[in-house]
Batch of 4 targets.
Target 1
Amino acid sequence: MKNVLSCVQPTGDLHLGNYFGAVQNWVRIQESYKCYYGVVDYHSMTMPYNPAQLRENTWKMAFYLLACGIKPENVFIQSQIPEHVELSWILSCTTSYGELTRMTQFKDKTDQLHETDKDAFVSLGLFAYPVLQAADILIYHADYVPVGKDQEQHLELSRNIAQRFNHQFGKEYFVHPEPLFTETPKILSPADPTRKMSKSLGEKHYINLFGEEDRIRKQIKSAVTDTGETTAGEMSAGVKNLFELLRACNSMEAHNSLMADYNAGALRYSDLKEAVANAVVGLVNPFRERLAELQADKKNVKTQVLESSAEIRKRAQQTLKEVREISGLTSGR
Ligand code: AMP
Ligand code: TRP
């Protein structure tokens, strides 16, 4: 069986965009591959953060993944497996300074920090982050990495690092991980459908996967339909997004009948919004219920995640043992 690895940063909330763009696919492919899904808390230290919040968000994200249908044995918390950091150091010595300076996400995040404070502190961790990501991937010999297009450059770097390591030590040791881009819809912000649904834009710009039904209905009801930029005869981005949501929720009957209304020039936006709200609520209600069950059994669930991390750690330790041998570090531990 081929190995799949993907990771998510513990950002606090999971929204519909994350679900349709990533997590749904992670759940599906569990049947076909040996899957490793990490909540990467070391990565979240690269931007300013609060320690108590980080720990809380890490657990929150692990619970969210389980509530969405990720199998407990496939989940790990990155900092439970410090070998990721050790491998990251070793790989950083086969990564050039120049290639890291070409990472566009580093530039974006630095700009983001400087937007609020022109003297903002930019850490070495933020700069080196793609090497840690390569370690996450290579440590489990992942063949496939399901990621969004925004991670394409980091994945390419992971492949280059693997190749260079193999070349430097004259051994085809690391596999070359391939991205697994699947057909996933891009979900737009209900409040501003010219932009991607995203947490960083603010609360009204994303629909929380574990949000209360009332709030979700309200958000969809007030979704922007006319952006004022469309030419006659062209569907506006907001309306397109609502149809996209219906399709993503697999409500094809409602989708097709409302699309027929649209084509006949008889679509009422209130009907479309009602259908979308029903579809989204129908999708997320079971997730929220499942989350409540997990939370009611918090202690056991946490123990389970720690145990699966310990189990997954054995795989990482094996890799490190081999890497230490190959790269000339002392063995015997
Ligand atoms: P982020 O935490 O924003 O980096 O998102 C993590 C992953 O969720 C991305 O790599 C995408 O695969 C997916 N994702 C995030 N936002 C959206 C969106 N608006 N539409 C579709 N997929 C998304
Ligand atoms: N960098 C990814 C993000 O910001 C998260 C991530 C860390 C990741 N390590 C990974 C994704 C390994 C895929 C594989 O979304």
Target 2
Amino acid sequence: MKFTIKAPATSANLGPGFDTLGLALDLWNETTITPAKEFSAQVSGEGAGRLASGKNNLIVRAAQRVAERVGKSLPPFHAECVNRIPLSSGMGSSSAAILTGLLAGNVLLENPFSREEVLNLACEMEGHPDNVAPAMMGGLVVSAMENGKVIARQISVGMNVHVTIVLPNFYLPTKQARAALPKKVSMRNAIHNISRTALVIEAFRNGDLDLLGKVMSDKLHQPYRLKLISGAASAMEAAKEAGASAVALSGAGPSVIAFSMGEAGIGESMKRAYEAAGVEARIFRLGVASRGAELEKRE
Ligand code: HSE
């Protein structure tokens, strides 16, 4: 049996919604699984030559997690990965790999788990739900962890918004970006984020880009992370000057995400801001992905 799984990029946090909000984006990794004598993975595109090619590959490890949970042994497979989501980018590459592996393991073991159970396993592996939930469900997703289980809901987005992500050539692992955060936050900053997170959701629901621009601000993570990423703060300013309605660090960074009605040079201005800080950058012009990870083809 041979099958292909597609998993989308995601942008988590969306400003104030730290570890809570995430948006699925129309940029997909496609992985074809074929039976093999031993576990192997071959990657083309993003991460080629950098990702593990044997049993330590994240897709293989995630598939093994399914087998461990059901107490069965996983038939070995080869994963042929066509990757479009850059690694360590703030665009959810690890979530896409985890979901791909879990879905593959689930198919190979004849579907012991529902999609909701697969999502719970993905949250366990990722440690926070805000990338894996939209990557699984598509669209804009609000998620929370309750007693180790995820509660996640998709919010319908009432607009055709342009999403521009600019990714600097700068390595910032999520672990490091999380280690930069304070252990305690002030009540004032917590209120800043709670109120704005609710309003960010309302802005997406109503297609209100003006509102999105007023409320997409954060006091819990961006101020600490922006100090680690040369050019990111000026890229955010440049996006606004070029006409973006709202802008945020994408996930834990180092990329920046901008929302706008048209594109009109927003990506180029952000790229120039990164370059002025001495960092090369790539522009991704994307839309929202309304669907999440799924089994695409089975032969
Ligand atoms: N919410 C997570 C963080 C997303 O900001 O650390 C990581 O991609």
Target 3
Amino acid sequence: MFELQHTDHPIVQRPRITVVGVGYLGATHAVCMAKLGFDVLGVDVDEAKIAELRSGRVPFFEPGLPEQLGEMLATGRLTFTTDLDEAARFGDVHFICVGTPQAEGSDAADLTFVDAAFDALVRRIDRKALLVGKSTVPVGTAERLTRMIAGRSPIGDELELAWNPEFLREGFAVEDTLHPDRLVFGVASEWAAGQLRALYRPLLERGTPLVVTDLATAELVKVAANSFLATKISYINAMAEVCEATGADVNRLAEALAFDDRIGGRFLKPGLGFGGGCLPKDIRAFMHRADELGVGQAVEFLREVDDINTRRRVRTVDLIRESAGGDLRGARVAALGAAFKPNSDDVRDAPALDVARMLYLEGAEVRIYDPEANENAHRAYPDLEFADSMDEALQDADVVALLTEWDEFTDADPEAVGARVGARRIVDGRDALDADAYRAAGWEVRALGRPGRRARVPARS
Ligand code: NAD
């Protein structure tokens, strides 16, 4: 059992909260903390983002969040600023939610934003307070920051650090924040643990499981969880590769595996694989950090997990090329989806967009449509062509590629879709369509890990 330092500092039962970095994670956290009844100040260096949030607009797509933001602004409990001096004065507890993207030219996490945010706050806070890291960071970061705080804070070790990793899923962010599967507190003192307990009391009273642990374990929980999820996705996608070579059907295989309680069906969904602002960069940063620590071999399997995931993108392009008759030059492809998953406008490392980019580079005329992510995708890839509606993307297409499984796409009527296109050929990159219904409507359907027309089990020699 790890030992917690004992101090006699009183716990602030209704602490004032700052949330530093109000992107996908921070904006949601700030709104939800206000929802729990706290006074919250959201802080960001991005003035445009703060102006939007102040005026009640969420700068990204997250179902339910705009309504909650409006409600919380109206209570007066939630405000936003770019002024760090104000934040330092305001908060009893400061949550740090800034980004930790993949570093340029390396697998490592870029900790520039974390270091800058901590440095700026630490120098300004002049009364007892708790800094709480929420960003996903390599194990050992909190220990380094603890030393930094002790060296730079005007109040020395009165300023404490805790780590409270976040597991929310984009698309379900509000629900996940208010009803998490578990809470994890990485702490060094009884006071920090007590302060976090007071803060999350409404959730704890509801029976939310709590793990109180040391800082390093708390940091690791998040990357370990993401590594596990990524592995499960790549596992079934590896099975899809085997299915493709044998004529077996990976969907039936996944269904049969899922009935085993020890395995379970969640994240056992074959398709184009994972992407987004977390899983890919988190597993890479984990491998990098493990290497630094001399235990790289322990997580070397994550390299294969990453490679399997990348191969799904290439394989999807292969299927689209095959559907187009073997040559993508001049082929009109309707790319349905750009976001890394439905119910999000996040295009960071999005498989859908990567596939569209590869098709474009091979000379296809790609028209992309995503219900929410067109704008972000266009910003990331200004050369690609975007349609304003699904119908516009489909118009006269030689091949349709389902790349993000939005309801708008999976609920579409194969007949109605067929009436738009030039040829009834579809590649289901997400194994999300009713292939029988499409075939019945005269479509040629190709899907990852499902038997194609020519698939068969080769005889053993
Ligand atoms: P994001 O890029 O959407 O938001 C980061 C925000 O931090 C931006 O608004 C940026 O302007 C701001 N920022 C940068 N430097 C700052 C500074 N010095 N002071 C104040 N603000 C600053 O990123 P995100 O998706 O919200 O992710 C943030 C962290 O949370 C990452 O470590 C990520 O891995 C982790 N996380 C994200 C999710 C998710 O679903 N997005 C879930 C769990 C954990």
Target 4
Amino acid sequence: MDSKIFLDKLKAHAGKVAILTGAGVSTPSGIPDFRSPNGIYSKYDPEELFGLDNFLSHPSYFYKFAADNIFTMKDAKPNVVHHMVAKLESLHLINGVITQNIDMLHKKAGSVNLAEVHGSIEKGHCLRCGRVYSLDEMYNLTSNSPDKVARCECGGIIKPDIIFFGEPLSESEIEKAYAMIESSTLIVAMGTSLAVYPVASFPQIVLRNKGELVIVNMGATQLDSEASLIFKVPLEHFAQEVLSLLAYTRPALDSK
Ligand code: CNA
């Protein structure tokens, strides 16, 4: 049974486990990923959408996409995969989660030690005066704007605090991520194609430190051949199985 093999592996690493997640953990919440056959990249050009220069020169292209694909994340609910990750942390089986996702769903599910290395849609800021805007404020401004661009009172363009191509990652989030990586002997990559750097190098750091890699992902990744275990299954089924097994073995875990 996949879940039993997985939990045995977590227990063998006694809480020195980092979980690394990508867009695939949120597809069961109705948020499309990038690189699956029906993902966002099958309909949009990535550089046009997320290139910083493009955003600065014609922000309406991003904002028109965001109206249907990013601001809709504000109403998304965490699914069984986010709940499983939060549960594993509360049981001290993992030390935290590093996510490439911007959708706030790990936070909503209760994950505490969380590094959102590609930022989050929770906030944005004006590129001219620096004023900070909440997600609801950005959403209201974009809905009332003829070209859908959220503009500050000062006239500046508001940019959601997500990382665009060509931007550095947030220093505080990346520091948190490296702290987790350096203290982990096992990294579990879930719902990510491991195609985006520097995040894709995190498993390589753990492997270089003589640690192990476990992958739970439907599609192929460039590190499949390096993994000790690979589960090519829908994450929502996998997570449900893990949670059921945890409920079944709860007294033994709680008494640790
Ligand atoms: P990706 O390259 O689209 O890879 C996603 C992977 O998840 C693919 O290999 C799929 O096969 C796999 N997958 C999808 N659904 C499932 C499922 N139900 N069960 C098992 N496997 C599944 O996305 P990455 O996260 O690797 O790429 C990093 C990008 C994606 C980051 O910059 C994110 O900001 C960006 N992104 C985030 C979101 C979000 O916040 N929810 C959505 C779309 C893209």
